Amino acid sequence: MKINGTPTRTIWPAKDGWAVEIIDQTRLPHELVNVRLESLADAAHAIKAMLVRGAPLIGATAAYGMALAARANSSDLALTVAYNILHATRPTAINLKWALDQMITALGKVPEDQRMAAAYARAAEICDEDVAINSAIGDNGATLIQAAWESARRARGADRVNVLTHCNAGWLATVDWGTAIAPIYKAHDAGIPVHVWVDETRPRNQGASLTARELNWHGVPHTVIADNTGGHLMQHGMVDLCIVGTDRVTSNGDVCNKIGTYLKALAAKDNAVPFYVALPSPTIDWSVADGIKEIPIEERDAAEQTHMTGKAADGSIVSVQVTPDGSPAGNWGFDVTPARLVSGLITERGICAASPEGLRGLFPERNG
């Protein structure tokens, strides 16, 4: 995607050819700051502290983390240690484990003295594959927005199609294009008058700070709303469809995404608003069937709930406490939306029902 007209990815090799650079997403939307990763520890910190976030980008960063680890020591033991360190950073997003497994498989096939080069090559491939996958997701999902636009225009003479999304599943959550926002970009670029309702997404405000930021960069009309506004908009016919991303999808179609997604799906079901989930195939966890029982839900620092960071009147970036002294806070990062509430899954191979049969239809290699 483009920032001020310049094509930009969220992670890229530094000019020296061995370090890696990322956008520090904790500094957005008010500051655009790049950070240089030079070690395994740097990559692990970037993931855990959410300088990078979004399941596909977490996976890509972990892949480069393994490359940085191999540069320092490419022995079997060192790579196993690196794998475990990176795997422990974020427990919910399955792309993390997928990318690490891809790296271990690739490096296990070559002699130790060739592993560093192989690691950088495979990490670059993972990034390029992510871009291609997300572009295809955008193409497939744009057909839904086109259909919703035509329906809204016929039914009520609408002058735009309204899409509601939750959290950030745009190019900032991936290497490029995004998952849930990719169809919006494709539709917008094709001339469809799409407008996006952007949930603020407490407690880290990824919608207000990241989704709004990138939609603003791309020129897509949007409105930031409080997390609890979506149901009201749906009741009044102001949402034509919902598209969200996900950090893990089970083999039966359950969807684990940012906390609050489940409530949006319930409201959509009650108001007959289609609720779609966009995902790349590495986000499917074929080993898990029951998302509520089996997916580990990350619990994060309570300070994310008790404090907020923003820009003061003088332009300075400040953090303020919004809860009373002494009040404890809970901070679950994700929830699970049961497959029965999902209208369909948008993947790089097409759109399918959120069901075992739907998923296996698109991924027949998983049958049996």
TrEMBL record:
GO molecular function: S-methyl-5-thioribose-1-phosphate isomerase activity
Involved pathway(s): Carbohydrate degradation
Active-site residues (renumbered): D247
EC number: 5.3.1.-
Binding site for substrate: R53, G54, A55, R90, Q206, N257, K258
Enzymatic class: isomerase
Gene Ontology biological-process annotations: L-methionine salvage from methylthioadenosine; pentose catabolic process
Cross-referenced SUPFAM superfamilies: NagB/RpiA/CoA transferase-like
Site feature (Transition state stabilizer) residues: C167
Domain of life: Bacteria
InterPro entries cross-referenced by the UniProt entry: Deoxyribose1P_isomerase_DrdI, IF-2B-related, IF-M1Pi, IF_2B-like_C, Initiation_fac_2B_a/b/d, M1Pi_N, NagB/RpiA_transferase-like
Reaction catalysed by this enzyme: 5-deoxy-alpha-D-ribose 1-phosphate = 5-deoxy-D-ribulose 1-phosphate
Function: Catalyzes the isomerization of 5-deoxy-alpha-D-ribose 1-phosphate to 5-deoxy-D-ribulose 1-phosphate, as part of a 5-deoxyribose salvage pathway that recycles this toxic radical SAM enzyme by-product to mainstream metabolites.
Similarity comment text for this entry: Belongs to the EIF-2B alpha/beta/delta subunits family. DrdI subfamily.
Protein name: 5-deoxyribose 1-phosphate isomerase
Taxonomic lineage: Bacteria, Pseudomonadati, Pseudomonadota, Alphaproteobacteria, Rhodospirillales
